[in-house]
């Protein structure tokens, strides 16, 4: 990224000059030095990163207690190191005033980042900070040219290797870059010492680095096709950036080169809204695209079976490392042009060496998860409703006292997603088309127009078994009936779930290639971006590949581009 006139990315006032915020910085970031807090140490039994360090040593007591897990981790990390030719994983070599790298123990354990100063930033300002604050070495290595997603804490940028000006984009490596604010180990020890979001990792050369736990998990999944492949991590001041393989859809603007001068132009000196034009959105086919307003399934059973089987494979590969993805949702899995699945966003996971570590006394949910509500939680919410003030109280508290097992909750979320794309609507939902978006944010206040529908669905969950389409095979119906049982103890475990005959279908029959409704999806997406500078600008495009990666394309025409995107018929119940 070119320097804004008068602004140096390494200047402590760099962010302040654009945002009008009073922030101090080192290397362009906001850091304070403080002695390591004297409070508790990390509970290694709850931290994957810290347990992994011990499990990699076959002579450690932990490895002796968990030999199978130790072997899995050693085999997977060894394969990753070999495939990467032992290249360094954490690559930011920028130094603070004491000469320490930001990923070093000396920095992580003696500095903290008061992120409260950034809580009042607008979404545009937050995105801007996540560009300006990136490691200069990273920005020298790659060219950011778009955005492909945004989560609760991070922004996902699209980037490519920098090539020669005017040269073809073919062959240049493409990346998704997850940039987010990071809290040092100092902060984790002070506030969340039982579980940390940044953990230690020993490089092939023996150096100890602190990296985001999410990046470390992806490192162990390097050979898996069910997850993005991580390339490297850059920890620089207030930000961490995780580089990984992207899974994005092709752009229908096809060019053979990028106008670097356009990328190096700042639209305005003051308004951060230019970030939408500088880094326009690219389409990503996440699970929510499989749901439609008509409440009709967009995939047939065989196609849905492939998606479900690959999704379950991803859950298994995490479970082999004693990790469970707690944030399974329609936004956190991607589907490429050939119905291959990748699970993403593992910022919220649970690790445990024994069953007890997955047991919880309280049940937590957020307002986007009404469609994944469990019957036992619905019962507790009805109890909660009975004694509250209907004028001002909320119908969807984030926590209720309800003993639960994280593993069973994860499998429930998975089952609701499978039911959803096979039916076109959610379990216990009224199948007639209406305006309720169950995966949108729902705070549950009495005055909301969806409240009546929510209450009706909850009562249906409590009193009735889930209704399953008669058009689905008996094997499929058996699977859904079991996994969506209203009785917790009747639901299958992960091992039991994998034994259902339904999962053998797609591997033994040819699945029709291609996703449903790709052409309207891509065209509609770009039409929506016209106001953000997406049209009429020579942005790089990405063409389809069998591995789902994004690469630059020299496609000669829209007809040629769309020739590989034949629409699939929409399956409907008779």
Describe the overall structure.
- With 574 residues, the chain is an alpha+beta fold.
- The chain has two domains: 14-278, Phosphorylase Kinase, domain 1; 287-508, Transferase(Phosphotransferase), domain 1 (Orthogonal Bundle).
- Helix 12 (301-319) runs antiparallel to helix 14 and helix 13 crosses helix 15.
- Mean pLDDT is 77; it is low at 1-30, 251-257, 266-270, 389-393 and 531-574.
- The protein starts with 13 loop residues before the first helix and ends in a 12-residue tail after the last helix.
- A five-stranded antiparallel beta sheet has the order 3-4-5-9-8. Strands 1-2 form a two-stranded antiparallel ribbon. Strands 6-7 form a two-stranded antiparallel sheet.
- A hairpin with a 7-residue loop joins strand 16 and strand 17.
- It is built from 20 helices and 17 strands.
- The protein has helices at 14-19, 48-55, 61-65, 67-83, 105-108, 123-132, 136-141, 185-191, 213-220, 260-263, 275-278, 301-319, 375-385, 406-423, 451-463, 474-483, 494-498, 505-508, 518-528, 558-562; strands at 32-33, 111-112, 142-150, 154-161, 174-181, 198-202, 208-212, 230-236, 239-244, 323-325, 333-335, 341-343, 349-351, 359-364, 399-405, 542-543, 551-552.
- Residues 142-503 form the Protein kinase domain.
- Keywords: ATP-binding, Kinase, Nucleotide-binding, Serine/threonine-protein kinase, Transferase.
- Residues 543-556 have a biased composition (Polar residues).
- One of its GO terms (biological process) is intracellular signal transduction.
- Belongs to the protein kinase superfamily. CAMK Ser/Thr protein kinase family. NIM1 subfamily.
